[in-house]
Amino acid sequence: MTNDNDLSALIGDIYDASLDPSLWPQVLKGCAGFVDGWSARLFSKEPASKSAIHYFQDGTMDPGYVELYFDKYVKFDPLSTRQYFAELEVPVTVGDLMPYDEFLDTRFYREWVRPQGIVDCIHSLLDKSVTSIAMFRHERDGVADVEARHRMRLIVPHIRRAALIANVIDLRAAQAETLAEALDGLSTGMFLVDASGHIMHANAAGHVLLEAGDVIQTMGGHLLARDRHADRVLREVFAAAGEGDAAIGSNGISITINQEGGDLRRPPASLDLG
Description:
The protein has eleven helices and ten strands. Helix 1 (4-19) runs antiparallel to helix 2 (24-34) and helix 1 (4-19) runs parallel beside helix 8 (146-173). The protein has a four-stranded antiparallel beta sheet. A two-stranded antiparallel ribbon has the order 5-6. The two termini are 25 Å apart. It has helices at residues 4-19, 24-34, 63-71, 80-84, 94-97, 100-104, 107-113, 146-173, 179-184, 204-212, 228-242, and strands at 39-46, 51-57, 118-125, 131-138, 191-193, 199-202, 216-219, 222-225, 254-257, 269-272. Helix content is 42%, strand content 20%. The protein is an alpha+beta fold. The chain has two domains: 4-169, Beta-Lactamase (2-Layer Sandwich), CATH 3.30.450; 176-272, Beta-Lactamase (2-Layer Sandwich), CATH 3.30.450.
């Protein structure tokens, strides 16, 4: 994939997977190909307990090695704790986290990495509960270069946003019969809007926020922020969304909104966007 149309198509697929988890394996395969990787995996690690939860992979890696990692070798992975301290969305490789020569001397490399022909991994942290996306590099491709890092940066904000959307919906999806029911069951206010900011659906908690009117409000059916600066940013994000997901980048994930009246005793609110 080299042109904007291909990137936009991949980003669209990423958001489709947030609503239909069965699409993740194929989407991850496309992501791996986009960064010239061999295999991709979406997972969560807990460095303190040296455990991990496997969400989705693209199917390239031998299932036996996947099982071995989560059952045994996650405890020997020298990168796990270091990955936790990386900045959100920033691609990091083995060489960024530890001297590469030291990595080659580890039991983890000798017994799990080298037998598969893996030479590097581009990893990005998606949230501080350590949900991560990893692209493995095969020996035929070599270690990650500048271009691979650049391509990773293009898609990681969208993978992060899709993962956040999926996590929120999953809180009630098992019991809900429709997406609207799932959203209405959340304690967090949520709004589905079109490119002009017109509210297509607001959940119960969202209606409570609108009725209070000190952070957000509606006018003519459109979602507005009471803080002027935040509202201007909100308009810009909605307009960018109308141009396609690729136009949003990482700018539309969260907007800080000052409370009505400027009461310093009240902390600013945060409007998270998906």
